[in-house]
Predict the structure of Aspartokinase.
Amino acid sequence: MNVFKFGGASIKDANGVKNLAAILNEYSKTYPVVVISAMGKTTNALEDVIDNYLYHTSALEASIQVVLDYHNTIISELFLDSEDSIFIAIASIINDLKMFLKTNASTDYNFVYDQIIGYGELLSTTIVSRYLNVLGIQNKWLDVRKYIHTDASYRRANVNWEQTVKDISTLQQHKIIYLTQGFLGANGNCTTTLGREGSDYTAAIFAYALNAKSVTIWKDVPGVLNADPRYFKDAQLLEQLSYSEAIELAFYGASVIHPKTLQPLHQKDITLFVKSFLNPLSKGTKINSDPGLVPAIPCYIVKKNQVLIQISSLDFSYIVEENISDIFNILHRFKMKVDLIQNSAISFSVCVEDVFNNLKHVLEHFSVTYNVTYIPKVTLYTVRHYNSNAINSITKNKNILLQQRTLDTLQIVTK
Ligand code: ADP
Ligand code: ASP
Ligand code: MG
């Protein structure tokens, strides 16, 4: 049994959905579980809806219409029968969203965010499931919120593995394609999410619970490359990787794989394939437990929009364990993702990602005890398996704010 995951880029328009159907048609008799994200940039469009709603702007109605129009354009191209039930189904999902906006009384940003953002996946899976069924690729649509159970950490929920595995296991050995939403989970009756780009992780959760043989994530790139082709020309395909190498690349920010995806797969030795939905017959990248699979070429990773925070003692005293513990407590409390740390006798620097918009609070807390300065919008470059050429090319013409090297990893923070 295999799990497939299709991301937003693969279904950004009607042709994308047709292409997905062609790929699934090839594999339909293996009855994969299919996990699907929101179409194209729908999640970003829903983030606009959330902000318009919570900040009471006049653009709310228009921002919902953008989401509806986008999906209507796609279904008009996919379904030639204008009486098809999909047209009512999509209108009804949007009505549910409007009903939530009308009746919701919560002002908790993260809670409201998750209740609204999940509509992207509900829309996409409803469309794709119906389209496949019309084509004769029989599938059953599942509400993932009945299977993936989480705690109430909205926007970065933690999976309750016991309950989740128990419920997903009930799907075993059915001769049908199951099709469901990535990214979402539930805490009781409330929708939760696993973090932006979390659908890869959903695929891994299903694979783990079903003891799948493999997971394939279908991407707009030939596989895992040694660099993000958006920033580096001549990026090369890495045909094979070990779990540990892949987890390092994902951790440092190679956004082609969500960093949480590898752990459940590694635990059950489930192979991960990263393949191109544009060229489905090409091999892509195979990731498994073979420890010998270290890339022979340097791998470059870019993380933009980081914040470099520099902390030093007020009275020239050492920054000791107690201070470091204090600093990390605050970073943890405000859900800052720490990507690099460096310390000296009287100073401590961290490069963080402020996913939850908490920088202001963190700085306020730090400034009670320390001198604190920060530089926003810095870029963190990481090079795994660097050599002198790689160092030269990555540091050339850059204003380097911080640099760190281990045996196999070089990191620089630049402005
Ligand atoms: P999805 O459609 O599943 O959401 P993503 O956009 O999250 O797909 O991931 C694919 C993108 O990841 C590629 O378009 C590419 O720009 C980016 N990417 C970043 N690092 C790498 C890498 N090392 N190899 C391949 N792609 C990468
Ligand atoms: N749709 C969600 C996002 O854009 C989840 C995903 O695509 O993996 O973050
Ligand atoms: Mg994505």
About this structure: The chain has a mean pLDDT of 95. Residues 48 and 63 are 7 Å apart (CA to CA). Residues 7-8, 37-38, 43, 120, 182-183, 196-199 surround aspartic acid (ligand 2) (CB under 6 Å).
